[in-house]
Amino acid sequence: MMQGQKVTHQSIGETGDEELEKGNMKRKKMNEKIADWMGQVVRWLSFVCLARVLLLNLFYTSSVGDQEMVSITGSSWQWIPAAAALLVLLVFWCRVADRIPEKKLFAGLTVFYVIAGCYFIFNITPTIRDDAKSVYDAAAAMADGDFSSLDAGNYLYVYPYQIGIVTYDRIVRLLGESVKFLEALNLAQIIGINYFSYRLADLFFGGNRKINHLTILLSFAFLPQLFFLMFKYGLIPGFFFMIGCFYFLMRWLRDQRPLFAAVSVAFGAVAACIKMNYLIGIIAVAAIVIVEAVRRKRWRYGILAAVYLLASVGAGKGLQLACELESGIKMPQGMNTFFWVVMGTDIDNEVRGPGWYNSIGWKVMGEHDFDIEESNQEASRLMDENIRKILADPGKAASFFERKTISLWCDPIYQSLWSGLSKYEVDSGSVQKDFLRSLYYNEAPEQACEVFLKGLLVILTAGAVIFLLLHWKQYPGLMYAPLYFLGGFLFHSFWEAKSQYVYTYIFILIPLCAFEMYCLSEWFRQFVAVRRKRCRAAAKVRRKKGAADDKRKNTL
């Protein structure tokens, strides 16, 4: 009886353990379902926004001319053969990819970029203008102990959050006072960006050589990034650190090595300091960490998400504090960020293009003798006025935001040539080579680049759209790319418009497109193999039939 009771007790215990294990599995599945649901929200929102960008690019093209004036035209047919030729080249390349080590491919294209970059750097007289010049001049003055840029009405008084890029320029100036050092560093970081793009593809697709090859080719084919080497305003260095932040985050999620997390946080903080737009990437990183916390039931990941946000914001505050200690001047509050939203949402703002820069912040601050509090009140009033205008005329508002989206996302060059060199600078003799003069003067070289890059842009966006539609479930870890794109799309829908801002959100999608190009090449390979097999089978049948006919004739 005692033995029977003992057996019964053991049976009850085993049943309880099984129920507990089932309960844990059920809760685990619930966690995974919640994480998957979060991913699906990102997936479909990104799909809708990216599909819109793709459709607009099929029918419209935008460009930036003199005085940063935006023009929008219907897309010409010329990009279609360019896209078709590029598609054929990528599919064919997969057939020879196994014969070429990917590291040699990357090294070869790097050499080409170095030669091309040096051609730009040594044949264009160093030039710098607009905000980039104000930042560089402030950095040079502060290095000499002159902090007048912090005085009322001067650059850092209005834009104190630019202290990050000013500090970056000060560090680069330690290498030399010529702006060519900024250009050379841009070139090195562009190659670094392409390397991180390649390594991210390698990380997610299990070292698939063909996908790696396609990622490398697409990254180096993205010529606007090369043209941006002449733009000395934080866009390239910021993106270098941002994509590095993504890469080391993914390495940490895979390997769980604290060093990768620390490097990722550091890279993200530097990116946000250099250019505040990269806070979009930091928010995306924090969101990814939270999703993984839910998926893996590791709630300490939430601490890391907070560290990303605090480090990125805190680093900027730390630089401002350091500037205060060095200068003895309290950092000003600066222009209210509402002014950029005011520019981006004013449906009557057509000065350069819909929602583009119109100097409203400087005008208001000048009218109020650079009184921060009064200027901020005016910014709030203007924002309220914009909302009233949108509600009063929704048709005009819809047209405005549609054209603003086109001006941002349908420029295949992303303002990269205009940002580096203006036509005035070309006319003043800054360029020594006829080819470069033609490139910067909207002649045959630039027009050819526009056609090629339009085809590339359509392929990249179409590939990413197909990936989100068909293959998301296979690689949910790639959420960083569509999430970063989604954040950029939503943010710039309301912020002041510049097409140069959005190139990073398209470039980050390259591994997704590379995967779809690989799938297309595999489908084509299988299609050709099936056709050959059928042809051989048909030929065999014909031979047998011919032999049978010959035998019959001989018998007769």
From TrEMBL:
Tell me which UniProt keywords the record has, alphabetically: Membrane, Transmembrane, Transmembrane helix
**Skewed-composition ranges (Polar residues):** 1-13
Q: Where are the transmembrane segments?
A: 34-56, 76-93, 105-122, 235-253, 259-291, 451-470, 501-524
For the keyword Transmembrane helix, the answer is yes
Name the segments for region: Disordered: 1-24
Under which name does UniProt file this protein? Glycosyltransferase RgtA/B/C/D-like domain-containing protein
